[in-house]
Amino acid sequence: MRLFRSLAALFTGLTVLGLSSCASQPQSAAESPSATAENSPTLAAAPTPETTSAKDHSHGGQGGQVIETGDYHLELLAKPEANGTHLDFFLQKGDDHEPIPDAKVVAQVQLPNGTQQKLDLTYDAAGGHYTVFLPATATGEYKLVVLSDLNGEKVNGRYTFTK
């Protein structure tokens, strides 16, 4: 009986220790819900971290905010200019990051003051990416949802940048 109590106490202690160590572990980018592509176009959810990747897709990157989802590589570069921000969006497929030129890509932007704008991105064949100019100069955090339609397949991502 004494052996049984000792084993039960040891098991309980190890269980509590295991659970407490799991609770204190930081969530990895691959597990984070904001690190994956989003299917909802609303801007109320948490912003996406600057760079996330579930597997090594470092080749082909442009140095922007990255989302890897399934076979797709989504990357946003926001380049502030005096009269707005130039946005470059790379929509690529596969481990070789092949550009996808025939998607319909729209950005829904929430400005720092809370107002929203919808922007249609156009494909730049020479650069292999989609692009648009955001004519907003307000200082603060901008939240974007980039909605991509690939012949009926939705591939979306959330981003933020500060100007």
Write a structural description.
The protein is mostly beta strands. The chain has one domain: Sandwich (Immunoglobulin-like), CATH 2.60.40.10. It contains one helix and nine strands, in the order αβββββββββ. Strands 1, 2, 3, 4, 5, 6, 7, 8 and 9 form a nine-stranded antiparallel beta sheet that branches. A hairpin with a 5-residue loop joins strand 5 and strand 6. The longest helix is centred in the first third of the chain and has 23 residues. The chain is globular and about 35 Å long.
Question: What brief labels describe this structure?
Answer:
nine-stranded antiparallel beta sheet; 163 residues; mainly beta; 9 strands; 1 helix; Immunoglobulin-like
The CATH architecture designation is Sandwich
Largest beta-sheet characterization:
9 strands, antiparallel
CATH class: Mainly Beta
Q: How many helix segments?
A: 1
Please compute the radius of gyration using only Cα atoms: 21 Å
Indicate the proportion of strand residues. 35-45%
What is the β-strand count?
Answer: 9
What is the total number of structural domains? 1
